[in-house]
Amino acid sequence: MYPDTELFIAGEWTNGTSGVTLPILNPATGGEIGRVAKAGKAEMDRALVAAERAFRQWRKTTARERAKLLHAAADNLKARLEDIAPILTMEQGKPLAEARSELRNADDVIRWFAEEGIRSYGRLIPARRGGVQQMVMKEPIGVVAAFTPWNYPVAQAIRKISAALASGCTVILKAAEEAPASCAAMVRAFADAGFPDGAINLLYGIPAEISEYLIPHPAIRKVSFTGSTSVGKRLASLAGAHMKRVTMELGGHAPYIVCADADLPKAVSMLAEHKFHNAGQVCIAPTRVLVEEPVYDRVLEDFVTAVKAIRIGDGFTGGVDMGPMANARRLDAMDRLIGDAVARGGRLLTGGNRIGNAGFFFEPTVLAEVPKEAAIMNEEPFGPVAVVNRFSSIDEAIDEANRLPVGLAAYAFTRTQRNAQRFADDIEAGMLSINDYGLAYAEVPFNGIKDSGYGSEGGAEALETFQTIKFVSQTNF
Ligand code: NAD
C-alpha cells in the first residue's frame, strides 16, 4: 500500500491548515497512487519558528550526542528498509534493487557524517605575544532551507540533512512533490530517533512559493538546492540578494572519454551499467561518450550490444535493469532531443521510442556521430540516451569535454599515465574518475564547477558548507 504524505513541522505530522493535497502518480502506470499535503504560509511560518527555536538547543548539543542521534536515525532507516524501498519504487519508478541500494547508501551517508561531525576541529594560531590565545572556531551556520529533487528522493535529501544536523544546524526540507513518501519515511526515521522538535521539518507544496518565502526570511541562514541550473541560478540570485550562504548542486553533461589504449571491455561495461542507472536521471550520468578514432567502431558496436540486453519493466518485476522515467516531462524531453539529433544527421543505433502507452517507459537509446549543434550535445538529457562521438587527439577530447558551460562529473579511460595526468590537469569538472566509476561516496567531495554550481555535498568539505568561522583572540588576565 502506498501511504499519503503529510508535512512534518515542529515534531508533528500534519496535513496543514488548507487541507489541500497534490496527486502522486506511479510512473509505471501513469495512474494516481496517493496524495501529498500542500504547505501554505501558515505551515512555513510554523516551520521557521520551530527550526529557529530548535537551533538554539541543537547548536549547544555536543557533537557526540548529535552523532548518537544520527546513528539512531540510521538504525531506524535500516530496520525499515524493506518497507520503504517498495514505496520508493512505486512513486519514482526505479527497480526495487536500486531503491534498496539508495536506502543502503543513505544509511552510509548518515553514519559517515555522524562520525565526521565529531572530528570537526578548530585551530589554534600561534600568537605574536605571550599570554595570548588565538582560536579559530567552527560554528553551525543556523537554520538551513534545503530543496531536493525527485530522481533520488531519499539520497539527495540525506546528504543535506545529515551534514546539516551533524554540524549543529536545523533544517527545513522542501523535498520533491513527485516522490514524497519515501523521503517522508526517511524523515520519520529521524523523528523517531529523538531529535528535538523542529530540528528537522518537512514541507511540500508549490516549489517557487516555498523557496521565495523561505530564502529571504531572516531565520534562514543557508540555502542548499539540487536541481536544474536554471532554477539554481534563480534561487542563488535570491539568496545573494539576502546574503545567504548557498550550496548549488545543478545539472551536468558528463563526458566519458575512451582512449584507444584503454581497457575497452571495462570502459564499455561500466558505461552500459551506469548510463542507464535510474533510467539515466542522474546528474553525474555519462552523456557525451568520446571514443578515440582507432577503436571507435568496436566500442560503439560492443556498447550497442550491451544496451540491447538491458531489460526494461515495472520496477517490481524480477530481473528488470531499468524502470520507467520518473515523469512525463522527461518523455517529452527524450522525444525532442532524439528527434533533433537525428534531424541534424546523428545516427540512431538503438532505442529512440517510448514503450507502450501506459506509464513513462522509454527505450535505452544510443546515438552516434551527432553534430555539436544538436540540442542533446548542449542540454543535459537526464534520461536513458547516450551519444557516442569520435576524437582523434587528446587535445580534441579535452576541448570537447570542456566545451559546455557546465562542469560536474567527467570520466576517462586510458592506460597511459601521461594521458591520465592531462585529464586530471585540464578537464574542467568538479569530479573526475579515471579508469573507474568512483564518485559520490559519502567521504569524497561531491561538487560541480561553472554552471554546475558550487559547494560540496560530500566529504569533510560538505560539513564546512554548514559552518561559519569565528576567530577569538583572548589575552590572559
Ligand atoms: P526543475 O529544476 O524544475 O526541478 C528540480 C527540482 O527542483 C524539483 O524537485 C522541483 O520541485 C524543484 N524546484 C523547481 N523549481 C523550484 C523553485 N522555484 N524553488 C524550489 N525548488 C524548485 O527540474 P525538472 O523539470 O524536475 O527536471 C528538469 C531538469 O532538472 C533535468 O533535466 C535535470 O537537468 C535537472 N535535474 C537535476 C537533478 C540533479 O540531481 N542535479 C535532479 C532533478 C532534475
Distance between the termini: 67 Å
Strand order of the largest sheet: 14-15-16-13-12-18-19
- How helix-rich are the residues, as a percent range? 25-40%
Which class of secondary structure composition applies to the elements? alpha/beta
When the domains are counted, the total is 2
Q: What's the CATH class label of the largest domain?
A: Alpha Beta
CATH architecture descriptor text of the largest domain:
3-Layer(aba) Sandwich
Question: What is the number of E strands?
Answer: 22
CATH fold descriptor of the largest domain: Aldehyde Dehydrogenase, Chain A, domain 1
Family: Belongs to the aldehyde dehydrogenase family.
GO molecular function, one term: oxidoreductase activity, acting on the aldehyde or oxo group of donors, NAD or NADP as acceptor
Organism: Rhizobium lusitanum
InterPro entries: Ald_DH/histidinol_DH, Ald_DH_C, Ald_DH_CS_CYS, Ald_DH_N, Aldehyde_DH_dom, Aldehyde_DH_Superfamily
